[in-house]
UniProtKB/TrEMBL annotation:
<dbReference type="Pfam" id="PF01137">
    <property type="entry name" value="RTC"/>
</dbReference>
<protein>
    <recommendedName>
        <fullName>RNA 3'-terminal phosphate cyclase</fullName>
        <ecNumber>6.5.1.4</ecNumber>
    </recommendedName>
</protein>
<feature type="binding site">
    <location>
        <begin position="313"/>
        <end position="317"/>
    </location>
    <ligand>
        <name>ATP</name>
    </ligand>
</feature>
<keyword id="KW-0067">ATP-binding</keyword>
<comment type="similarity">
    <text>Belongs to the RNA 3'-terminal cyclase family. Type 1 subfamily.</text>
</comment>
<feature type="domain" description="RNA 3'-terminal phosphate cyclase insert">
    <location>
        <begin position="196"/>
        <end position="304"/>
    </location>
</feature>
<feature type="domain" description="RNA 3'-terminal phosphate cyclase">
    <location>
        <begin position="12"/>
        <end position="348"/>
    </location>
</feature>
<dbReference type="GO" id="GO:0005524">
    <property type="term" value="F:ATP binding"/>
</dbReference>
<comment type="function">
    <text>Catalyzes the conversion of 3'-phosphate to a 2',3'-cyclic phosphodiester at the end of RNA. The mechanism of action of the enzyme occurs in 3 steps: (A) adenylation of the enzyme by ATP; (B) transfer of adenylate to an RNA-N3'P to produce RNA-N3'PP5'A; (C) and attack of the adjacent 2'-hydroxyl on the 3'-phosphorus in the diester linkage to produce the cyclic end product. The biological role of this enzyme is unknown but it is likely to function in some aspects of cellular RNA processing.</text>
</comment>
<dbReference type="GO" id="GO:0005737">
    <property type="term" value="C:cytoplasm"/>
</dbReference>
<keyword id="KW-0436">Ligase</keyword>
<dbReference type="Pfam" id="PF05189">
    <property type="entry name" value="RTC_insert"/>
</dbReference>
<feature type="binding site">
    <location>
        <position position="116"/>
    </location>
    <ligand>
        <name>ATP</name>
    </ligand>
</feature>
<keyword id="KW-0963">Cytoplasm</keyword>
<dbReference type="InterPro" id="IPR017770">
    <property type="entry name" value="RNA3'_term_phos_cyc_type_1"/>
</dbReference>
<dbReference type="InterPro" id="IPR000228">
    <property type="entry name" value="RNA3'_term_phos_cyc"/>
</dbReference>
<dbReference type="InterPro" id="IPR037136">
    <property type="entry name" value="RNA3'_phos_cyclase_dom_sf"/>
</dbReference>
Length: 366
């Protein structure tokens, strides 16, 4: 009988739980998580964390204890069958059947964070998996939907992930009410090599407003604010022949979305010679739309000045994929999320090597 992995989330939040569940499924190992979301003001499972747990239970027909709101201890045993295929370490891989699932978070809890927990499972799928989630699509402390669709998925498709995301309805805080679907196909991930981003080739702008804000032109004003700030900061760069280098906008989408409550979001995708990065901002009551766009642009500028091959949010989100496929990745910094993921992966026997190089950090899997 496989020994239960004992994990302590006293110094972590919801990402620790989501990543632990993904790894438990990938390794087909039972886990016991103590002090779930222990560093949050209200610890324990909230609606969106419980939704992730229940989804994993449904996918695997797993055994679970502590699966209720407020629980600070969770026991999870995937109980999958082992397949004949081997992973990169020569270990036998479990089999996860696909299917169609619907998940109701019940609040403005993040749909994209639930999707993040599912993506690594494509590496052990036997058939297509489709999961439709009702909840928040563009809410605080999580990737906006367009970041997930236009930055993270394209970045991972380069390395063999077969996935799409479709949106039926946007959901902003506090009502939520959004609805989106992620579809995954069995995928063999290639080794990740993300060392240099290369030159900036263009910018893509995805600005969204709820229908209730359309008469204020929020989506257009967010986009204008972002592009003006980018042009001011970056448009004056000089080429080798002393000419000014303009910012090339290769795509600009301004969307008015049906939603149960007002809200807005903007995502900037930076298209580099060797990959993509993204930065975002959410609208806030009392904050001019132009300022929301400028905030996203300021984050993009800081990324460009930092030198990492991926942005700081994608950095920690890709660590599980790096563990699955192997490879190297240059990240801007060791954030708290990166540090927590490093410790969690070590608990599952995956040692990440971190080497500081100038203002960046090289992460590799031996």
């Amino acid at each position: 009988m496989t020994a239960v992995r004992e994990l302590d989330g006293a110094d972590a939040g919801g990402q620790f739980l989501r990543t632990a569940l993904s790894l438990a499924v990938l390794e087909n190992d039972p886990v016991r998580l103590e002090n779930v979301r222990g560093d949050r003001p209200v610890p324990g499972l909230r609606h969106q964390h419980l939704a992730v747990l229940e989804t994993m239970v449904d996918l695997c027909d797993a055994d679970v204890a502590g699966g209720e709101l407020g629980s600070e201890t969770v026991e999870f045993d995937p109980g999958l069958s082992d397949g004949s295929r081997l992973d990169r370490r020569g270990d036998r891989r479990p089999i996860l059947e696909g299917g169609d699932y619907d998940v109701e978070i019940g609040t403005a809890g993040s749909a994209t964070l639930l999707f993040d927990a599912l993506l690594p499972l494509a590496s052990i799928l036997e058939s297509r998996l489709s999961v439709t989630v009702s909840g928040g699509t563009d809410v605080a402390w999580s990737p906006p939907l367009d970041y997930f669709r236009q930055v993270k998925l394209p970045a991972l498709r380069r390395f063999g992930l077969s996935a799409v995301c479709e949106v039926d309805r946007r959901g902003f805080y506090p009502a939520g009410g959004g609805r989106a679907t992620v579809r995954l196909w069995p995928s063999k991930l290639d080794r990740l090599e993300l060392l240099e981003s290369g030159s900036l080739e263009g910018v893509r702008v995805y600005s969204t407003e709820a229908a209730a804000l359309a008469d204020r032109d929020v989506a257009r004003r967010q986009a204008e604010g972002a592009l003006e700030r980018l042009s001011s900061a970056l448009g004056g760069r000089e080429a080798d022949d002393d000419r000014s280098v303009p910012i090339e906008v290769v795509e600009r989408r301004e969307t008015t979305a049906a939603s149960e409550c007002p809200g807005s979001a903007i995502v900037l995708r930076l298209d580099h010679e060797a990959g993509v990065a993204g930065c975002s901002a959410l609208g806030e009551r009392g904050t001019p739309a132009e300022r929301v766009g400028e905030t996203a642009a300021d984050r993009a500028i800081r990324h460009l000045e930092g030198g990492g091959a991926v942005d700081r949010h994608l950095a920690d989100q890709l660590l599980v994929m790096l563990a699955i496929a192997g490879g190297e990745m240059r990240i801007p910094a060791i954030t708290d999320h990166v540090a927590a993921s490093r410790e969690l992966l070590a608990a599952f026997g995956v040692g990440l090597e971190f080497d500081r190089e100038a203002e960046t950090v090289l992460v590799s899997v031996p």
